[in-house]
Amino acid sequence: MFNETLELNKKSWDEAAKRFYGRNPLPEYGPLAPTEDDLQLFGDVHSLKMLEIGCGSGHSLKYLDQRRAGELWGLDLSSRQIESAKELLINSSSRVKLFESPMEQNPGIPADYFDVVFSIYAIGWTTNLDKTLKNVHHYLKTGGMFIFSWEHPMYNRIKAENGALIMDKSYHEEGSYQHIAWNQPAIMQQYKLSTYINLLIENGFAIERVIEDVSLTEEDVQRHANRWYSFEKTRAIPAAFIIKCRKL
Questions:
Q1: Into how many domains does the chain fold?
Q2: Which residues form the signal peptide (predicted)?
Q3: What is the mean pLDDT of the chain?
Q4: What percent of the chain has pLDDT over 90?
């Protein structure tokens, strides 16, 4: 059953879906972060069964379809995002199955089935990280791969002001907070990087890589000036982190 936070976030994402159509899909992992072209975390996906958590408008799934994945599954909280993904993927070569569902719940996804589960800049929307990771572990085959990216938890603790970087929030503070950047209210979760890592270990994953690198170009200096994901901040603090792990 939906809780109040999920209901709020669903309304927010339904309203924002058009704005975020096709935003930062694979091969991107997030703003000002290295790409899959750089990192090669997925490797050859030919014939693999793959599931995306928070699939949005379906553009990352489209990227994998173009690389001949065997099956492409996705779930997203937003009905409008799922509608967009269905339209985008209608002529896919891969088998496609999409669910409108929060990531904390299993809408009918099989156990021990997937070679890869992944999430591109969506995992931080979960209202229950432990439950979401348990679900991912449940979906994966033994030895299956889980790759996800999200905003680095240090990034929103620090603000740029008058040419200086100021830490105005505690890194140790975790929990829910109101996301105020959108017109429609939404609730997000703050976790330390160690919380992500420890919960992965507790839920039966072996961590292979943790990536906090930044990819900055001359174009980024201009394009991201004075934005939330800015050159000014990211030259000192990673905007995103990426973790690759496997089900034991």
A1: 1
A2: none
A3: 91
A4: 72
